[in-house]
Design brief:
Helix content is 41%, strand content 17%. By secondary structure, the protein is an alpha/beta fold. It has a single domain, classed as 3-Layer(aba) Sandwich (Rossmann fold). A 7-stranded mixed beta sheet has the order 1-9-8-7-2-6-3. A two-stranded antiparallel ribbon has the order 4-5. A hairpin with a 5-residue loop joins strand 8 and strand 9. The radius of gyration is 21 Å and the shape is globular.
């Protein structure tokens, strides 16, 4: 086959794949135009306070990416609330407003926490001043004592390391409009669930649920039984994406920075890593990334990307370079 024809056939095949994609893809300039007249409600100092360690966030990114997303979520939330009201009217049932739940997924070190915090602040400043809460699924990890007993410490963050029934019960209670629903608290400093510590979520208008595996499914039972997934409770979901090599670089950079800060505290679970030399620390960070986090990404997290309503793809500078929105 002539080389020119092969290239042409490849181009046609790629175009067909794009046509069949369930997503509409935008670069940052195209997406930023969808902000319309959505006002900026965060100051530069507030944006700086919201960013995480080794996860920079700029006013430019908030304006170009997160303000259009806030506008989109306003449309989705209002439509969802309207659907709930219509359903209650059809059933002749009385009930309060059902919370709008947003899931935020992605790899370790990709910046889920910063994105979730920025979204929380923007959504809470909508004209209606909704009550917006944020929960991370880290609190629903099994305690270290259980993971050690089950031989799962090397798979912390994998689906099997979470107390899934407890997480599902929490989300079910939130969706049912129950008051004072408690969630466990996780400490990255102590690298464990904190016994006796909880955070209370009380009838939010919007709840953001951030976690590694929140879009993950599991094998369906052959008898057709209803098996709930965490994502069944979501009204909208976001996956934050980046190249594997970037994720590795960001993880290692954060690990090395923590050696100079939090790890120096003798109470820190990772204090021992502050007492080794740089070469050994680098080797340790790479080993943890490749044996645990990269494996979890490839086996459990990345396969859930196509289930998201929105995919935010980052470049090396943590800037969102591409936005993919699922076609309605």
């Amino acid at each position: 086959m002539p080389r020119g024809k092969a290239a042409m056939d490849q181009a046609v095949a790629m175009k067909q794949d794009m046509d069949l994609s369930p997503y509409r893809v935008f670069d940052d300039k195209q997406w930023s135009r969808l902000r319309a007249d959505t006002p900026m409600t965060l100051s530069a100092s507030e944006v700086t306070q919201l960013q995480g360690l080794n996860d920079p966030m700029s006013m430019d990114q908030v304006e170009k990416i997160y303000l259009p997303l806030s506008r989109l979520l306003a449309f989705y939330a209002e439509s969802t609330f309207g659907l709930h009201r219509a359903t209650q009217k059809f059933l002749n049932a009385k009930g309060g407003k059902i919370p709008f739940i947003i899931g935020v997924a992605g790899s370790v070190s990709v910046g889920k926490s910063t994105t979730s915090r920025v979204l929380r602040e923007l959504l809470a400043r909508w004209p209606a001043s909704p009550k917006v809460d944020l929960i991370t699924t880290d609190g629903f990890l099994h305690p270290n004592s259980v993971l050690e007993q089950e031989g799962l410490m090397g798979k912390k963050g994998f689906p099997e390391s979470f107390d899934r029934p407890r997480l599902l019960k929490f989300l079910s209670d939130i969706k049912a409009g129950k008051r004072y629903v408690k969630a466990p608290v996780y400490s990255h400093f102590y690298y464990d669930v904190m016994p006796g510590h909880t955070v209370t979520v009380d009838k939010p208008d919007i709840l953001i649920v951030e976690g590694l595996n929140v879009l993950q499914t599991r094998e369906l039972p052959k008898d057709g039984r209803a098996v709930p997934f965490v994502s069944d409770f979501f009204d909208f979901s976001v996956y934050i994406d980046a190249d594997e090599q970037l994720l590795e670089d960001w993880y290692v950079e954060r690990f090395m920075r923590l050696r100079e800060t939090a790890f120096r505290d003798p109470s820190s679970y990772f204090h021992r890593y502050s007492r080794i030399d740089d070469a050994e620390a680098l080797e340790t960070a790479l080993r943890i990334w490749r044996e645990i986090n990269l494996l979890n990404l490839r086996e459990n997290i990345l396969p859930t990307r196509p289930r998201a309503d929105l995919i935010l793809t980052k470049d090396r500078s943590h800037r969102i370079a591409k936005v993919a929105l699922r076609k309605v």
